[in-house]
């Protein structure tokens, strides 16, 4: 019966090898992994943003829910009409986070919360792009406090069209990788073939706007204007390339 046991072990071993080669085809040939030159290349370029997003919070207070809603609706309408008058298109304006809630204050003498009317709030987001998007953003920020209780929650520069910048950087990264591979091939005395594997990773840094204001938003009477500096950000692409050795 020993020969049957040996035959069974042999069959199991063959089946195991077949399964491993099917599941992990890379282990079937070390030549594919070793007969090549593996290099990396990095492409870097500076890009300027093409989009500016502004965030505003509109707040009002009323003795009742209806009064608070009426006030905030009127304030939001006035603000939106103002920015449209400056040249902002309707499709660039979005309202969100509409809420109305009761306000309370703490009464020390009675150690109780006392109802104190209702607060209404709403977020208005304005997205600007085009030739004069920075100038238009400055005008909107400067005019916002003149409407009423408009809080400026921040701004964000971004790059909407990433394809143009990435294409240039990608070519630089591949060119650098090719030069490295050629140097290695010449030093090793081998002939460089075509790339057989390319892996890419990219990164676009953030844009951090700088504000220059003539006065603080709270001092509306003295408020003059806002200026924005978009700056630039770095686009980086890394490619890992394996070249065939002929």
How does this model look, in words?
With 246 residues, this protein is an alpha+beta fold. It has helices at residues 2-23, 31-34, 65-86, 133-143, 163-188; strands at 36-47, 51-62, 93-107, 112-129, 150-158, 192-204, 210-213, 226-229, 233-245. It is elongated, with a radius of gyration of 32 Å. It starts with a helix and ends with a strand. Residues 19-33 and 210-223 have low confidence and may be disordered.
Order of strands, widest sheet = 3-4-2-5
So, the CATH homologous superfamily of the largest domain? Protein of unknown function (DUF541), domain 1
Q: Which fold name corresponds to the CATH topology of the largest domain?
A: Translation Initiation Factor IF3
Based on Cα principal axes, name the global outline. elongated
Percent helix, as a range, is 25-40%
Topology (elements, then pairings):
Elements: H1 2-23, H2 31-34, E1 36-47, E2 51-62, H3 65-86, E3 93-107, E4 112-129, H4 133-143, E5 150-158, H5 163-188, E6 192-204, E7 210-213, E8 226-229, E9 233-245
Antiparallel strand pairs: 1-9, 2-4, 2-5, 3-4, 6-9, 7-8
Short description:
The protein has 2 domains: 111 residues, Translation Initiation Factor IF3; 107 residues, Protein of unknown function (DUF541), domain 2 (Alpha-Beta Plaits, 2-Layer Sandwich). The protein has 5 helices and 9 strands; from the N terminus they run H-H-E-E-H-E-E-H-E-H-E-E-E-E.
């Amino acid at each position: 019966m020993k020969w049957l046991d040996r035959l069974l072990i042999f069959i199991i071993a063959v089946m195991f090898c077949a399964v491993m080669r099917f599941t992990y085809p890379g282990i079937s040939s070390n030549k594919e992994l070793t007969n090549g030159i593996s290099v990396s290349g990095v492409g870097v370029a500076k890009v300027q943003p093409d989009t500016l997003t502004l965030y505003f919070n509109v707040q009002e207070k009323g003795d009742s829910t209806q009064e608070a809603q009426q006030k905030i609706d009127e304030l939001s309408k006035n603000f939106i009409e103002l920015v449209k008058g400056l040249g902002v298109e309707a499709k660039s304006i979005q309202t969100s986070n509409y809420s109305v809630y009761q306000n309370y204050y703490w009464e020390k003498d009675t150690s109780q919360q006392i109802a104190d009317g209702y607060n209404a709030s709403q977020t208005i987001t304005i997205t600007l792009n085009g030739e004069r998007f920075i100038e238009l953003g400055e005008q909107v920020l400067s005019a916002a406090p003149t409407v009423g209780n408009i809080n400026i929650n921040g701004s964000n520069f971004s790059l909407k069209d990433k394809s143009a910048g990435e294409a240039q950087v990608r070519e630089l990264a591949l060119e650098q990788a090719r030069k490295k591979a050629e140097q290695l091939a010449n030093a090793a005395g081998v002939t460089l073939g075509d790339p057989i594997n390319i892996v890419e990773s990219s990164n676009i840094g953030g844009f951090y706007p700088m504000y220059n204001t003539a006065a603080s938003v709270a001092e509306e009477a003295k408020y003059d204007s806002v200026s924005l500096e978009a700056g630039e950000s770095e686009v980086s692409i890394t490619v890992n390339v394996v070249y065939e050795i002929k």
